[in-house]
Each structure stands twice: as C-alpha cells, then as structure tokens.
What does this fold into?
Amino acid sequence: MNFLDTLWLIPVFPLLGAALMMMLGRHQYLDPQIENGSVGHHHHHDRGHDQDLRSKQGSRWLIGPLCSGFVLLSFLWSLGAVFAGRTEQVLFTWVAGMPFPAFDGRMVTLTADWGYLLDPLSAVMILMVTGIGFLIHVYSIAYMAHDGGLYRYFGCLNLFVFFMLVLVMANNYLLLFVGWEGVGLASYLLIGFYFKRKPASDAAIKAFLMNRIGDAGYLMALFFLLSIFGTLRFTEMQAAAHPLLPWATLLLLAAAVGKSAQIPLFTWLPDAMEGPTPVSALMHAATMVTAGVYLIVRAEPFFRLTPEVGSLTAAIGAATAVIAASIALVQHDIKKVLAYSTISQLGLMFMALGVGAYWAALFHVVTHAFFKAQLFLGAGSVIHALDGEQDLRFMGGLRHRMPQTFRTMFIGTLALAGWPGLAGFFSKDSILTSAWAASPVLFGAGLFTALLTAFYMGRLLFLTFFGAYRGDQHIHESPKRMTVPLWVLSIGSIGAGWFATPFAGWLGATPEPHSWAVMVASAVVAVAGLGIAYHFYLNRPGTADRWEEGVAPVARLLRARWYFDDFYEMVFVRGLARQGGEWLSLLDRRVVDGGVNGAGWLARKVGDLSKWSDTWIVDGAVNLTAFSVKLSSFPVRYLQTGLAQSYALLIVLSLAAMAGWYLLRSA
Amino acid sequence: MSHFYTDVDHFALLPAILLAFFGCAVFLFDFLLGERSRRWQLALVLPGLAMTGWHLWKQGQIAPFTAFHGAITIDAFGLFFNWLFLLTAALVALISYRYLEIEEEHQGEYYGLVLMAQAGAYFLAVGTELITIFVGLETMSLSFYVLVGFLRRSRRSNEAALKYLILGAFSSGILAYGFSILYGIAGSTYLSDIAMAVAARPAFDPLTVLAILTVSAGILFKISAAPFHMWAPDAYEGAPTAVTAYLAVGSKIASLALLLRLFLGPLGTAREAWEPLLILAAIASLTVGNLAAVTQTNAKRLLAYSSIAHAGYLLLGLVAGNATGLQGIAIYTGAYVFMTIGAFLVLMAVHGEEIEDLNGFARRHPGYAVPMVVFLLSLAGLPPTAGFLGKYYIFLALIESGRYVLALVGAAYVAVALFYYFRLVRSMFLLPAIEVERPQASSLGLRVALGATGLVTLGAGIYPEPFLQLAMRSLLK
Amino acid sequence: MHYVAVSLAMLLIGTAGLLTRRNIVIILMSIELILNAVNINLVAFSRHHGNAAGQVFAIFVIAVAVAEAAVGLGILLALFRNRETVQVDEVDLLKW
Amino acid sequence: MPWLTALLALPLVGLIVLLAIPGTARNAVRMWANAVLLGGLALALPLWQAFDRAASGYQFVDRMPWIPTLGAQFLLGIDGISLLLVLLTSLLGPIAALASWNAIEERTKEFYAMLLLLQFGMLGLFLSLDLLLFFVFFEVVLVPMYFLIGIWGGERRLYAAIKFFLYTLAGSVVLLLGIIALYWQGGLQLAQPTFEIAELLKLQLPLDAQRWLFWAFFVGFAIKVPMVPFHTWLPDAHTEAPTAGSVLLAGVLLKMGTYGFVRISLPLFPEAAREAAPILAVLSIVAILYGALISLMQQDWKRLVAYSSVSHMGFCTLGLAALNSNGIAGSVLQQINHGISTSLLFLLVGYIYERRHTRQIADFGGLAIGMPRFAFVFAVAVFSSAGLPLLNGFIGEFTILQGAFIVNRAWAAFAVFGIVLGAAYLLWLYQRTMLGDVRNEANRGLPDLSLREWATVLPLLLLALAIGVYPKPWFAVLERPVLDIAGRLAR
Amino acid sequence: MNLEALFFYAFTTLALGGATLAITRRSAVHAAISLMVSLLGVAGLYLLLNAEFLFVAQIILYIGGILLLFLFVIMLVNLDAGRGLRQFHQRWPLGAAVTVIAGVAFAILWSRAVLPPAQTMPDVGNVELVADTLLQDYLVPFEVVSLLLLVAVVGSVLLARKRA
It folds into this structure.
C-alpha cells in the first residue's frame, strides 16, 4: 500500500481530537474554575486548590497530552507523506451542483471534490502547521494548566489544526474556502475563549466579521474563477489571460487582505490578542494569518497574468509593513508589539508577493513562523510569570530571573530584527532583493521597515529583560513544558535561514542572485535599529520620552494607531450619529455599548434606519390601509342615522342620480 | 274542473296551496287550542313542508311547463329557488321554537306567517306575470313586516318593523310604478309579451329606462343592495334573531329570483342600459356592506352589513351575464342559505347580540363555536367551504367576461370581510369570558339545524361535486 | 299623456310627504298617494291599450294598499303602546 | 398502495381520533399527537429510498376525481422538489409537537388538534398537483395557524394573528384570481378545462396573459415568502407565535411561497418570469440586506430570528430570480436549510422562554456558563444560519449566489454582503445572550437542555451537519425537476 | 275646451290639491279629509278613463275602508293631541328639493317617451270586461290576494291587540 493513500488521515487526527473533546467535554465543557470569577489569567493558586481541582476532574490532565498526541501523529504522518512524493487524492464528490454555462459558452457543472493535493507548497505549509502546532499544544499544557475550560481549549485548538490542514491540503478553491472559514471559526472561538470578558468576545466578533468581509471577496472570486475556467480544481485550471481575470485576482487579494490583516482590514489582529497567548502564537502569528500569503501563492498563475493587481498587492504590503511597524514603536503591551510586528512582517510578505517573489514570501512565512511563534510563546512565558502583566512599563530585569525565557527571546528578537546569519536575515534579504529589482520605493519601504523592526524589537527586549524590575510580582521561571518548545523553535530561528536556496529549488523557483549591497544594507539597518534601541532604552533611559516630545504630532499619530479605528468609528458611527436628534444619540450609546467596530457599526446604524422605515413606512402603509378601512367604516356607518326618512331620501336621491345619468348619457 | 282552472293549473299551484293550507291550519289550531297546541305546531309545519317538497319534486319530474296562460312557469329555475325557500323555511322553523319560548312570544301565528311568506315567495320564483309577481311579493313582504315586529314588547322590534314597513311600502310603490310602466310599454302584464315589446325598443329608450330605474330600485331594495340597503341593518338588528335569519335568506333570495326573472327575461335585451347601474350597485354594496361591518359591535348588525355585501357579490354574478355567472349565483345562493342560517343560529344559541357576548364562548360550547368558524369562513369565501365555491364561480364568470377590475374589487373585499368575520372568532376563541354564563338557547331543533347547516357548508366545500351538479342541473335545464 | 303627468305629480307629492312629514300616520297616507299614482298610470294605460289588465292590476294595488295600511297601522299601534309617540324621527334606537 | 394519500390522511385521521380523547387526559392527548406525527415521519422517510431520481415527472401519483364539473382532481404526486419539502414537513411536525410537551398547559387538546390540522394542510400543499387543491391547502393552513398564534401566543397575539391571516389572505385572493384566469385560459386551449399542473404546462400562453398571471401569482406567493415589502406580518407573527407555531411557520409555511414560485410561476409563465426576474432579484437583494440590517437592531431575541428569516428567504427568492438550474436548486436546498437552522433557533428561543419568560436580549447574558449544552447547540444553529461551510447554510447560499452570478454579477455582489451582515447580527446576538458574565441573577442556575429537548434539536443538528458535509444526495434528488424547470425557462 | 277636458282639469285639481293638502295639513284629521278629497278626484279620473268598476271600487274600498281605518287609528292614538308639535322634520327642504330634482328628471324622461299605438277598448261593459279579465287571465293573483289579505288581517290583529 502506498503511503500516500493514507494522506487523508493527516487532518483526521486533529479532527478526532476535536470531536473527542466535544464528546467527552460535554459535562465539563466549561470548567467551574472560570465560573468562580477568574478572568483567565492566573492568580496564585495554592497547591491545595489545584489538587482539589484535579481530584474532582480526574481526566483533566489527560486532555493536553491527548490532543498534542493527535497533532504529533499528524505531524509524523505528514513527514511521511512529504517524503513520499507529490500526489492528489480525491475522497468524494462534495458539492455536486447543476450545469451552467461558463464565460466561453461551454456547459460545465458546478462541482467540488473533497480532495487533497500534496505538492511542495502544501507540504511546506502542512509541516509548518503540524510542527508548530504540536509545539504550541505542548506549551499550552503547562500554560493553561490552571485555566478552566480545557476541553474547550484543546478541542478548539485541534479543530483549528484540522481546518488549517484542510485549507492547505485542499485540491480546489472551494474546499480551501472550507478551511479558510473554518480557521476563522476556530479563531473566533479561541479569541473569545475567556468569554466572560467583554473585550474578548468583542475582539472575537471583530475578527470574524473583518474576515468575513474578505470572505465575501473570496466567494465572488470563486464565481469568477468558476465561470472563467469551469472548474475550481487547482490541477485543472489552465491559467490563461481573460478579460475578467483581474477581477478574480483582485477579489482573491481582498480575501487575503482580510485573513492576513493587511490595510485596511488589519485592526482585528491587535484586538485578537485577547485570546490566550499560545493561541496568539499559533494562529495570529505563525499559521492562520499566513493563509492569505498561501492563497496568493496558490493563485500565483493568475497573479502573474494580472500585473496590475500584483502592484496593488505590493503597495498594500509596503504600506502595511511601514505603518504597522511604526505603530509597534509606541505600544506598551508586549503582545500588541508582537501583533503589530506580525502585521508588519505580513506586509513584507505581501510586498514580496506583489513583486513576484512568491518563494521569498513563502520562505519568510516559514522563518517568521519560527521566530514569531517563539517570541509569542516567550512573551507568554513572561506574562505567565508576571501573573498576567502585559505592560512593558512594569517589566524589566527579567533576564536573571527567567534565564531560559530570556535566552530564547533574545534569539527570537535577533532573528526577527534580521541579525545577520539568523533566519530572519535571510528571508528578509530575499524579499529586499526582489523588491530592489522591482522598485526602489518598495525597497526603501522594506528597508525602513527593517530598521523600525530592529528598533522596536530591541525596545521590547531591553524593556523586558534589562534594567531593573519595575513591577511587584513574585517571579519564577516557567516550567519545562513551556521552555522546551521555546528551545525547539529557536533551532528553527537560528537555522532555517540557511536553507533558502534548496527551499526555492524545491518550490521550483529561481531566487534572484544575492546582491551584496542589499545584504550589507539590511545588516546595517538591523544593527543600527538595535543600537538605537539600546541607546534609547538602556544607555540613556528617558531619551525616548524626550524624542517623543520632540515629534509630538508623530507620536500622537502612532499612539492613535494612525487613527484607523477612530476613522472607522467616526465615518461609520459618529458621522451618522451626529446628524440625528435625540433618538440617534440614544442609539449611539447603544452602539458604543455594542462594542463591535468597523463595518458592524455602520450596518447597525443603517439597520436602525431600516427598522425605523419598517415600523413607520412599510408597516405604516399596511396599518394605514387597515386604519383607513376602519376609518372609512365610520362615514359609511354614520350614513345610517336611524331615521327612516333619511333612508328614503337616499333612495330618492339615488333614483334622481341614476335618472340624471341616463339623461346625461342620451344628451 | 273548469277550463279556467285545469289540472295543470292546479298542479302548478299545488305547493303554494299546500303552504297556504298548512299556514291557515296553524292559525286555526292556534286559535282553537290556544296554549296547549304550541308544542305541536312544529309537527304541523314540518309535514306541511315535507308535502310541499314532495310536490315540488313531482313538479320537477315534468318541468318545464306553464300554467294559467303563462302566468306561472314551472321551470328548473323556479324549482331551484323553491327548494331553497323550502330549506330555509324548514331550518327557520326548527331554530325558532326554543327561541320564541325564551322571548316569551311563542305564538302560533309565527309559523303560519313563516309558511305564508314562503307561499308568497313561491310566486316570485315561478311567476311570469306582473300582477302575480306583485301580489306574491307583497304577501311575502307583509308576512315579514309582521314577523319583524313579532316581539311586540320590544321597542327595537317595533321600530325595526315600522322602518321596514315604511320603506318597504315605499319601495313597493316605486316597484308598482315601474310595473305600470312595463304595462304601458307592452299593454300586457305577461313577461313574454313585455319581453317582445322591450326588445322592439332601443336599449336606452326613455320608457325602458324609466322602467329599469323604478323596477331595479324596488328589487334592489328587497335584496338590500346599496344604495337601497339602508333599512337592512336596522331591520335585521331589531327583528327576532330567527326572523333575521329568515329575512336575510328567504326574502333576499326570493327577491333575487325576481331580479333574475325580470332582468334576464323581459329586460334582457336592455342589458346595455341596466348593466352600469347594477355594476354601481354591486360595488356600492360591497363597499358599504364590508366597510360598515368592520367597526360594528353588534353581531347581528355585523351580519346584516355583511349580507349587503353578499348582495353585491350576487349582483356581480348577474353583471357577468354569462352561464358561469348564473351558475355562480345558484351556487352562491345555495351556500348562502346554509352558512347564513348557520351563523344566525349560533348567535341564537349564544343568546346575545353584542360581539362581546361571544367572549369565551368556545371554551363553554365548542360544539357551537367550531361550526361557527366554518360558517364565518364560508361567509368570507375561504376554502374548503361552500362559500368559496360561490365566490369562485362569480370570479370565474367575471374573468371570463373580461371584467378583471370587478373581480379584483370583489377579491379585495374578501380580505376586509375576513377581518370583521374573524372578530367574532376572536371573541369566541381568543378572548376570555367577561361575565357569568348566559342562558343558552339550545334545543333539539337548533342542534339538528346546526348539524345540517354545518355539514352542508363544510361538506359542499370539501366534496362539492353533487352540489354543483344539482345547482347546474336546476339552472341550466 | 296628461294622465301620466297627473300620476307623476301624485307620485312626487306622495314622495314629498314621505320625506318631510314627521307624523307616521301621514307618512302612511303618503304611501297611499303613491299607490294611487300607480293606479292612475295603470288605468290610463289600460285605456290606451284597450284592455282591462291595467284596471285589474289597479284593483290588486288597491288591495295591497289596504293590506299595507292595515299592517302599518297595526305596527303603529304596537309602537305607540311602547313608545307613546308617532313621530318618525323619534324612532331611532337602531342606527349605525 | 396510495402512499401519498395515506401520508396526507394520517394527520387528519389522527385529528379525528384525537377529538375523541377527553380533553382532560392531557398526557394521552400529547402522546397520541406525537405518535401520529412520528408515524407520519415513519411513513414519509421511505419515500427517500423509493424515489426514482432519474425519472422525470411526478412519482407516486394518486389520482382521484374530485370536482369533475370544474375539472379539478384530487391529484397527489411528488418530484424531487416536493419530496424534500414533504420530508422537511414530516420531520418538523413531530419536532414541533414534542417541543410543545411542557409549554402548552392550557387547552392542550385544541393545541394538538390545530397542530395536526396544520400538518395536514402543509403536507397537502406540497403534495397536490392540482391547482385548485393547491389553493385549498394554501388557505387551509391559515386557520390553524391563526389559532396557534391567537390562543397560545405572546402578549400581542391578537394583533399578530389577524395580521398574519389578513396579509396572507389578501395575497391569496389575488392568487385565486390568477388560478381562475389560468384555468380559463386553459379552457380556451385544452380540450377539457383542468387545474392539473402537468396539463397546464402544455399551454401556449401569450406574453400578455403570462404577465398578468405571473403578477397575480406573485402577489400571493410574495406575501407568503415574504418578500420585501410584504414582510411586515412576519416578525409579528413569529414573535407572538408559540414555539411550535414559529417552528412550523418559519420551517414550512414560508416555503409555500417559494414552492409556489418553483412549482407554478416559473414553469408556467417562463417568458413573464424572465421579464420579471430583475425585479424579483432586486426585491430579494433588498430583502437580504434589509432583513439583516433590521435584525441588527432588534432588542427581542425572537424578533431578531424572525427578521433573519426575511434575509434568508431573500436568498431563496434570489436563487429563483436567477432562473437557472443552480439558482433554483440552491433555492430549494436553501429552503430546506432555512427550515432546519431557523427551526433550531426558534426551538432554542422557545426553550429559553419557557425558563425565563422573557425574550428581551438585554435580560440575558452569560447563559453559556450555566447552560453549556444549550450554548453549544445554539452556536451550531447560529453558524448554520450564518452560512459557515460544512454546515447546511453554506451550500445553499453558495449555489444560489453562483446561480445569481451567472445572470448578473452585481446581484451576487450585493447579496454576498448579506452573508457578512448575517454573521454580524447572529454573532452579536450570541454574544449578548450566551457570553459575558451573568448579570441577571435570574439567569443563574437555569436547567440545561432536557432529554426531550435534546430529542428535538438533535435530528436538526445532525441534518445540518449532514447536508453541509455531504450535500450531493440532495442535489441528486433535485437534479431532474430543476433541470426541467430551467429548461423551460431557457427556451 | 271640451267638457271632458274640463272634467279632467277639475278632477286633477281635486286629486292633486287634495294630495297637497293631505301632506301639508297640521292636523291629522284634516289631512285624512284632504286625502279623501284627493281620492275622490282620482276616482273621478277613473270615471273619465271609462273605468267605472274602479270608480266604484275606489270610493267603496278607499274612502269607505282605508280612510275609515286611518281615522280610527287617529282617534285611537289621539293624534290631535300632538298638533302643537313640529309637523315637518328639520331637513324637510332637503327632502323637498330631492323630490323636485327626481321629479324633473323623471318628467324629462317621460316627455321623451313614446307609447305604442293606442288600441280601442272592446265594446263590452266595463264591469263585465273587468270581471272576465280578472277571473280568466288573473285567477292566480286573485287567489293569492286572499292570502295577502289573510296575512294582513292576522298580522294587524296580532300586532295591534293588547298584550296578554
């Protein structure tokens, strides 16, 4: 039996895990812990309580390892599959719709298989998803040990892995969309994990809705592709120019922009940090957000045929990279810094996609997955140690108290900053090289981003681990189950960069020849950024504040996150709200209470208008009819005076009128 | 028998003679036996009706034929309506017994007058000569004037009778004036002669127009079509409920028979002249009847207004002027007999006239409330009830003759009608009772009548074939 | 045609009486006038057409008039016993 | 064996027997009604196996003379479209009955009698192939629904009941005129005037007649669906109806309108339908967006679900307006889907109302803490309704949108935003009711779903998942009839 | 002006004048007497029209029967006690106006009317003619009218008798 025949098993393992959690966890679906008032971050638990919990829920300890095991199985299986070769496996016909005419007039049938495609591109993603997914599962066992809702947590995590695998293994665009939406669902569930906290559920909704806007684009893209090619299967789509192809690629880009948190749909990602930190690491740094990149790489033939959309991609990517990086400069929340950094790095990847360096983008995806996951998990470790504290201003000097965490974070920071020789350096370099070939502006943006990246990462590192501790918590190093994954990831952070050429070869791409100038520039920028950060935050603490005063407007702009959220709020909410009178302001309160940003706001505002029109206009018309029927009843009734003579009068009058009519007619 | 009065003549007259005979018998027995006889009067009335029916059936075997030189024509048309009169009278007799006892006006004359009214109506259906028709009409009307005022101690009954009489006599006068013009046109009172004379004139001949005006005013009054409807709500409300039922059904369809006889017979060639008039009357009836009913608080009055609206639908059938329209009228009237009497008899069982009196009725007497829903649905014209078939045919006739707007108007008023009919349902089923139990006027006769009307109303809706065959055969032979 | 004019005038006078008087007895009289108008018509046409049908009709109309008057006055008496009035516009319990 | 006749007669026979049970024996009444409806389901399910998917035309035809004078027959039969709707009806009937077990304490016997009558009417409508019979059943359902809302409904039940009745009736009288006019047209062309749909399909109707007829039927069906701007009866009726009423109203009654379009309007008046399609599509899109936007503003849980129905039914009519095979197939499937997911939502609202006696969203919050199973089921219902892939809603919406896209790209583009908005109001609802902390002490310690309640939701959950994961058999059933209809429309 | 015309105008004046007085007199008794005058005028017209039988019937039936009935009732309900009351209701001008309008319309219609050619009466005595016609051609109404009168008698007795 060919090992590849068992390809379908890869996503099945985590699905099994998820299903198992759902079944078993029915009774402890939500653990009592969470009900007792914890908001998810840990207070000091005395052992007794912990023991108590354990004895009450005997199987609790099993959850994490079980789920991790499923993902590990998946990982091992995919290793086997990847080395067995490339293949396509169709399990069954999933959607089997009706025939319809394609644009070229042929009758084709709307079908989509449930089938998997294993090629280098998906192989890379599968390995990354299962590998990093496994590490994060392991890490979570310890990180979440004191949290309630473990069944739910690990169930959702497994569900996420399942959907992510469906996404990257799908052999057609429709099945890909299943994974695409599925990871959105998992993301919703996990961001809102601490569902008693309003910000968490708000953030979850926001993430889901902003993604949905992209998804709407995806759906439309699907229809275009279907009509152009008559099929959605990757291997059957023969890329050829078509006047409507730009629409398809543009819509695909919109979908990718949503999923990968690019301008203008990026504001959900920082909010998504409301989820547990491992979730941030897994989904909002390493895997899910790169689905956009994956999609564009998958759709590479179409993007190649539509250079104008490519340029737009690059522009969006560059702008996102610079803007997000600049916002990261002033963030105080350690996870927010990393979140903006993620957006910024995703921007770089989009820039690479836009200039046609698909392999470079993918390469950066891989390296970024290593060091960003590592950084998030490290941050998680810090947060864990500080019992939920996330503000950089109350950290400092942790390097001695948490040596393992410090070392791995240090490696990760350097890798992200692009320290020569580490993973980030090489992947970023590939992008910059391609950008240089395409346009100096893009190159400049990339380089500037690199500078900013090095700076804010340096800032993060120095503020967290150097100097004196500014908080008041009892600090302890995290357990092995948390630090070991960190170390495993740092292997990747250090070494992954050296495989650039074989990686490109595997994908069948020819990388741009290395340009020493770019390399040097990139290295210089990285070192400079770190150096400035050192100067600002370690050497001369307070410099930063002075600088901020010096460029106050800029700082304000950055603090306000370039006013994106405010812009959405202003345009969609206040702009309309101010016009209305009192009821609108009442509504405003309701809207503000509602807590959902962005399009949702506008929708609800318009929704209120529609409700109003429904009550007063549509229903009003109906009620008016009913009312006028009733009203007209009265005149008819009041003709009936009760006086016999007025009845007779009407008879005579009618006779007169009728006679008059006949006279007029004959006249 | 002399040659003035042949066997055929006798045979043609026999049902009316029987009715008159039994009517007189009732008067006589009441006079001779007094109080004691009253329980047995029903036993006199029903056999009388049964014998009448027997003879109607025998007439049906050899119909059509004419008697008295054409003064009476026994044809399918006349027999059909006479069967309806017979059913109506029987049902009314059945439901009246206990009701009159409760009202403490249980007098023998009542049943006699019911039979006399039917005897008068007999001539409206079969009469083909103006004087016969006029005298028949007046016999019926006079009986009704008395019946409406039958509750002598009730001011409302007095008042209703008075208004009905004044206006009825006035309209009879106008009708008689119209008849005199018809006589002037033809020099004869036989409809066949008049038909020829009218046909010889143009449709808009002034004399014809005058005749049409006055005749239609007189008859439209009797079928309570707007704008000659004003007496109806008052008379219906004030009359004893059983009489209201009889008035709403018997008087109306008898006058309808006359309307059809005249307008399809002698005046048929002047259709061009009277059609707009009837269209106006139909629309006005629909409008007035339906709209005024919407806000009524008295159930009898509500049904009175609705009966005005029904007159409108019947007129639409005549306006359509094709065979389907006639079938529609036949089926509509057939259904109308059962559903209207059914609705009134439930009101009698409630023994209350205000809609509020019905509150919570369904909880206490579901056996009456559920049939009432059927009657009301049928009155509104919803399937699967007999009333639907009538409306169906009327609409079909209108569409066949290209009168789409009229069909739409008629259809639109169905919704309005349902609204007020369902106010009664709302009271019975959805609202809680507001007071202690009222005396309930149930009796064996009432229950039998309820069963009969309910079964026919629903049964004819679910499996209408036999009813349609019946109506079709009776009218199209 | 003269008789027809008389008839019409009679009809109108009767109608006017019916429409304007309050006294029910006089209203009933007005109805008699209307029926008389009919009779004039009938008899006039009877002569015009040279047959007696109109006259026969008139006889029946007279009979009807008698009957209506009798019943009308009977109702009037019943009403009078209950209400002590013969003014038609005071009889308006039933309306709307 | 007259299978369909038996299926149709069962609730009626059950009703007659039920009337013989004394009203005081409440449990006997309940058990009997449930048994009858379950029996109906058992009778209906084998149809799925026995149905020949390859055959064109109607199957299991039962033909009896009914009113030969009019040319109306008692003619029952199904094709793939009605098969699905009959199965849905047969499933939702017992579910609605079971869901009402504890909810209806007053006038229990009448309640179940109405339920059985309603079931009879609904099945009859989907089974009948004779227009007059169709119309009779179209009206028959109104009465029991009126009573269901009016007797066992919420505070404004009187208003809602009559509004529902009048609205639908107003539409149906126009529908009746259309049927009559069609019959008449048939009488002019056919040897024998008839109401049989299959015979009427042979007519060659002039375009002008088609137009009039199409719009007459449109009024009747559009009100039933309901399409904007005829939709305002729906929120009131839904909100005030008892749970069983809402379930059947949303699950089945609304489909009568769309079914009417598929069965009558589109195949019979293809040219007029082609002309009217843009109007239909625009109205549908308005309904999709409008319904969704209004849902966003609702403060009442049940009303929100009701308005969401407007939006979802908008998708169904949009699919029809596309006039092609994918649009129509998607529309039919979406009707089923809407029946499943919205019924689920209504059931859950009903269950929470039984516990808390309020439906104001503001009164809730944090229910997930005490009622995790409820929260789980509700989440599935929400995502199914929001059209998440692998659940039923997505398949239908996707197919509909694809069908619409083929005709006009703008239609699809506008409608796609309905999906975004759908997620918005549903998730927001979920957040406000299920998530957060318990703010209102009354919400603490509410019992989770009982076994009986599970029994009502589980079939729907499984069906939602089954359709989402493997929709192929559903399309297979629809293929023949939908292609036939699309073929007529394309000609 | 011939004699017949003279008589015609005389009787017409009597009939219409009496009618006008009947509906305008304040006293019900006066009105009844005016009605009698009017009916006499009509009877005269019958005579002019060669309807001798009707002339007699009019005088006996109407003046002897109906008018007596009216007078009897007028006494019974003591109508003259109400002489002081308003005799016309408030909206009487409206009633009069409508009557006039209807009258004008009818008159115009009549003025355009064309009757069929006149025929001559058969040359037999009027009473004989009427009797023949009545009992040969109109036997049915003759029988039915007995029912009518029976109903009238029973009805008026029923309504008018003092309650038990």
User: Anything to note?
Assistant: Chain D has a mean pLDDT of 91. The radius of gyration of chain D is 21 Å. The interface with chain B takes residues 65-70, 107, 135-136, 139-140, 142-143, 146-147, 150-151, 157-158, 161-162, 165-166, 169-170, 173-174, 176-177, 180-181, 183-184, 212 of chain D (CB under 8 Å).
